Amino acid sequence: MRNRFYLRSDEQGKRLDVFLTEKLTITRSKVKEIFERGSITIEGRTPKPSLKVKKGLIIEGEIPEEKPITVTPQKISLDILYEDRYILAVNKPKGMVVHPACGHSEGTLVNAILGYLQKTANGQWAIDEGRRSEHYPQDVRPGIVHRLDKGTTGVIIIAKDLKTQEILSGLFKERSVHKTYRAILEGIVQRETGTIEENIGRHPVHRKKMAVIKNGGRESETAYRVLQKLDGYTYVEAYPRTGRTHQIRVHFSYMGHPVVGDEVYGKHARRLTGRPLLHAHTISFQHPRKRLKVVIEAPIPEDMIDFISEHQ
Q1: CATH of the domain at 292
Q2: pLDDT band at 87; cut points 50, 70, 90
Q3: Does residue 70 register a pLDDT over 80?
Q4: 186 and 138, same structural domain?
Q5: Hey, how many other C-beta atoms are within 10 angstroms of the C-beta on 302?
Q6: Confidence (pLDDT) at 127
Q7: Which one is catalytic: 149, 161, 231, 303?
Q8: End-to-end alpha-carbon separation of the chain, Å?
Q9: How confident is the model at residue 117 (pLDDT cuts 50, 70, 90)?
Q10: In which band, very low, low, confident or very high, does the pLDDT at 57 lie, cut at 50, 70 and 90?
Q11: At what angle do helices 28-37 and 16-24 cross, to 10 degrees?
């Protein structure tokens, strides 16, 4: 099923393709695809991308679905931090994508999870012996209730069945899951503690990036505490109270202290380290089935320990 949209322009003089990119919060390449398919109409006609919009203009169309991707169980080593019959917690390594997408159909955390559950025959997502050659459809997201960026390390929770996944998703939505991150920032942060409360939305020009948005965006809040001041850098603990895409990276960059190694939001990333030095350190929540408090911790990775040691 395709996603139809109906928009009434509240702007004057902006290019139609730029207007749609901003209003639909999709990439420029996706907007280009919509035009190429002829999937946009204004007063029954197909407009050009360069058309200048007027206030009150009615724009209709549909966003085509992504091409389906199958998800195959794979034998990939996992660093398991916690496991019971309902949930699994792993320490995600740097460079691992959480869910398959275009360009990342294998080697993801989901591939690894399915392979692990298949091996142990544990959980709703396990495949029995007679069906091990089958693939999962792309829209099945076994157990995934939150994500970490490709370069971010640390603890991530996976539900082993749909009921547990539903409950955990509710806890995240209610902001009842508490997370702490460790990060190394560029420069010296002067305040020992602080809170960044700035809305975050899609970057108005670079649509694959997020940015602090003064008019619009979504409410976002990140608290932090300085742990150690290094030689030109600061080691901090961060407490995201909302869960926006790239939130911690965007907020610290906005503050003038981007995460070391962050090629998207940083200043000197390429010559410092191979990834953003950001780590999901702990996560705590009420167990979705046992009703007990669970606290899970992922040890600080070697590359962060080494960086701190080298810059003391």
Answers
A1: 3.30.2350.10
A2: very high
A3: no
A4: no
A5: 9
A6: 41
A7: 149
A8: 55
A9: confident
A10: very high
A11: 120
The count of structural domains within the chain is 3
d(CA 109, CA 141): 11
Query: In this structure, are 161 and 59 located in the same domain?
Result: no
Task: Indicate if the pLDDT at residue 137 is higher than 50.
Answer: no
CA-to-CA dists, residue 311 to 129, 152, 181, 266, angstroms: 52, 21, 20, 18
CA angle, 70 then 71 then 77, to 5°: 155
Q: What is the 3-state secondary structure (H, E, C) of the chain?
A: CCEEEEEECCCCCCEHHHHHHHHHCCCHHHHHHHHHHCCEEECCECCCCCCECCCCCEEEEEECCCCCCCECCCCCCCCEEEECCCEEEEEECCCCCCCCECCECCCCHHHHHHHHHHHHCCCCCCCCHHHCCCCECCCCCCCECCCCCCCCEEEEEEECCHHHHHHHHHHHHCCCCEEEEEEEEECCCCCCEEEEECCEEECCCCCCCEEECCCCCECCEEEEEEEEECCCEEEEEEEECCCCCCHHHHHHHHCCCCECCCCCCCCCHHHCCCCCCEEEEEEEEECCCCCCEEEEECCCCHHHHHHHHHCC
For residue 128, indicate whether it is catalytic.
no
Contact between 202 and 22 (Cβ < 8 Å) = yes
Residue 175: pLDDT band with limits 50, 70, 90: very high
Domain containing 58: what range?
3-63
My answer on whether 116 and 191 are in the same domain is no
pLDDT tens-digit map of 154-174: 999 999 888 898 899 999 999
Query: How confident is the model over 253-282, as pLDDT tens digits?
Result: 999 999 999 999 987 766 789 899 999 999
The reported pTM is 0.76
Q: Is residue 233 part of a domain?
A: yes
